[in-house]
Write a structure and sequence with these properties.
The structure holds 2 protein chains of 2 kinds. Chain A is mainly alpha-helical. Chain A has 11 helices and no strands. Classes of the chains: A mainly alpha, B alpha+beta.
Chain lengths: ~230, ~375
């Protein structure tokens, strides 16, 4: 049970951070007309195609005592970043970034441009337009982003294993725990945790598709648009 | 501010070229002075009407030119001034109205108001809602009100800010004539006190006749005429229109000279030395234009006419006469070939026959400039 609570704590932290990063990043990706934008889009989408072990490997190297991130962290806080809960949060934020950003971009882009023009002519600057028009009209996208970030972080395995290791109470998340139980042939224990994750994932996807259905369009789907 | 009467005109000089990959090359090239009151911007779709409004509102940046309200410069390519749309104090009602769907009518209207003490704020909102007769819809959302009500709310929302200019992009399309008229009446009543320039875009003739004190006709990015609706729109603008409207004479001509103070220009008819005077149109010397003239608007004289107000008298010779029912169509060679309709009685009285020398008399305003 400790591993489940740890996973939930990790997912909650990651989701909160992703919201803070994802909103401005998605806004920029949705509205910027910069030519090099596709490069940033590619970087954000990388975790979708990279094996988690590859992502985990590079994050681990960066966070190591000789890596750039690890050295800065060591200097600032006096302890290493790898194999800690904080390190896990770092890696998970990168890993789940596209799941937060893509639904946000989709819903920002679906806001009628004329509403943005109207807001500008009525005197509202970019921030006010975002706060009063874009964000309230993108609530389904925000909810989708939150739910997907949370669920995706909750179920991650490869990245956690690479970056966090398997330390009870600080980096042993639910999926690692399941793996451990299976390795020890404790199938009943493994099944109990797996069932929790299965049920949770089903509920999450039901919520996302329910939102898609309610707003009458696709904000996020596991399949590409036909 | 309250009670102040501004009669500050909007002046525009805009050049904007658009090269879009999948669209035809488009140039907006015009210069206009819009006084207070309603000016109609008339033209077919693709004439550049909405593009012009976007430039005035600051949503599009012209390649060059100047936009100012009175002496207040909003855009000047040479001085590198480009005031943001937020600070132009414009009201812009889009064709789609663009009401915020997640806000109530009152929240929509309050959106553009600057920070004000709550008492002043609610007075301003109440006043404008009342002026456009939507005071009892304050708590509804746009999806819960009718089309005409939405249009009134959109007007109220943009005018509550006390703008310097009002831009309307076909705001009343889709409404029946009666509803349209009542909204326009309310707009006129509001503007009687404010006296700001209003640019009203439309592509339907009905609206021009119903609204217009002034009309500016736009075609392919250029102003082709401006003035009072009946003056501007009486003459056909395009060759195919002229043919459809049954102009028997469609003459090629070259512009010789513009006399802007007289509102006329001299053109030389193709392949001849004959010059005639026609109403001033959008053209410059050496431009090729077409002149449309009704056969029934041409007078024939058998002697050189004197003491006439008509400005154009051409000497010629009758080539043929053909009786068609109750009229006689005369073909007259006067530098170029004219078709002239006369009555059988006039034909007999003047003893018109083929080969007879005649003088053709054309009133300036019977010559319609056709652009193609």
């Amino acid at each position: 049970m400790q591993s489940l609570l740890l996973s939930i704590r990790l997912a909650a932290c990651v989701t909160a951070i992703l919201l803070a990063i994802g909103l401005p990043l998605a806004y920029w990706l949705a509205y910027s007309r910069w030519r090099g934008k596709f490069l940033v889009e590619s970087i954000v989408a990388l975790p979708l195609v990279l094996p988690p072990t590859v992502l985990g490997f590079y994050v681990l190297v960066a966070m190591g005592t000789h890596g750039p991130l690890g050295r800065v962290w060591q200097a600032a806080f006096g302890h290493a970043l790898a194999f800690t809960f904080t390190g896990l949060v770092f890696a998970s934020v990168l890993y789940s970034l596209p799941f937060a950003v893509q639904p946000l971009i989709a819903s920002f882009e679906s806001v009628d441009r004329k509403l943005l023009d109207a807001s500008a002519v009525l005197g509202a600057g970019a921030l006010r337009t975002f706060r009063r028009v874009i964000l309230p009209m993108s609530i389904p996208g925000v909810v989708t982003a939150l739910v997907l970030s949370f669920a995706h972080t909750l179920g991650e395995f490869g990245v956690v294993l690479m970056v966090g290791g398997n330390l009870a109470g600080s980096t042993r998340t639910i999926s690692i725990d399941i793996y451990d139980h299976v390795q020890s042939l404790e199938y009943a224990e493994a099944n109990r945790l797996a069932l929790i994750l299965l049920t949770f994932s089903f509920v999450v996807l039901s919520i996302v598709y329910g939102i898609n259905r309610r707003v009458g369009r696709r904000i996020w789907s596991a399949w590409p648009a036909r | 501010m309250a009670g102040a009467i501004s009669t500050v005109p909007l002046s525009l000089r805009i050049l904007l070229e658009r090269r879009a990959p999948n669209a035809p090359f488009f140039v907006l090239d015009l210069s206009l002075e819009i006084p207070s009151g309603i000016s109609i911007l008339f033209g077919t779709s693709g004439a550049g009407k909405s593009t012009l409004l976007d430039c005035v509102a600051g949503l599009l940046r012209p390649d060059s030119g100047q936009i100012k309200i009175g002496d207040d410069i909003l855009f000047d390519s040479e001085a590198r001034v480009n005031v943001s749309p937020q600070r132009r104090r414009m009201a812009y009602v889009f064709q789609s109205l663009a009401l915020f769907p997640h806000m109530t009518v009152e929240e929509n209207v309050a959106y553009g108001l600057p920070p004000l003490p709550e008492s002043q704020r609610s007075v301003r909102i109440a006043e404008i809602l009342q002026a456009f007769r939507v005071e009892n819809l304050g708590t509804r959302r746009p999806a819960e009100i009718s089309g005409g009500e939405k249009q009134r709310v959109a007007l109220a929302r943009s005018l509550v800010t006390r703008p310097q200019v009002l831009l309307l992009d076909e705001p009343l399309s889709g409404l029946d004539a009666e509803l349209k008229a009542s909204i326009v009446d309310d707009l006129r009543a509001w503007n009687a006190a404010q006296r700001i320039p209003i640019l009203y875009v439309t592509h339907t003739r009905d609206e021009v006749d119903a609204l217009g004190e002034r009309v500016v006709v736009l075609d392919r990015g250029r102003v082709i005429s401006e003035g009072r609706p009946h003056e501007v729109l009486a003459a056909p603008r395009r060759k195919r229109l002229a043919q459809a409207a049954g102009f028997e004479n469609l003459l090629d001509a070259t512009v010789v000279e513009l006399r802007e103070t007289d509102g006329v220009m001299r053109v030389r008819l193709a392949e001849s030395a004959s010059e005639i005077e026609v109403p001033l149109g959008y053209a410059t010397p050496n431009d090729h234009v077409k002149i449309a003239i009704h056969a029934g608007d041409i007078l024939l004289a058998t002697q050189p006419p004197v003491g006439l107000s008509a400005r154009n008298i051409l000497e010629g010779k009758i080539v043929s006469l053909e009786t068609r029912g109750t009229l006689v169509a005369a073909r007259v060679q006067a530098g170029v070939m004219f078709t002239v309709h006369v009555t059988p009685g006039a034909t007999r009285a003047l003893e018109l026959t083929a080969g007879k020398p005649v003088w053709i008399v054309l009133k300036t305003h019977s010559c319609h400039l056709v652009s193609d």
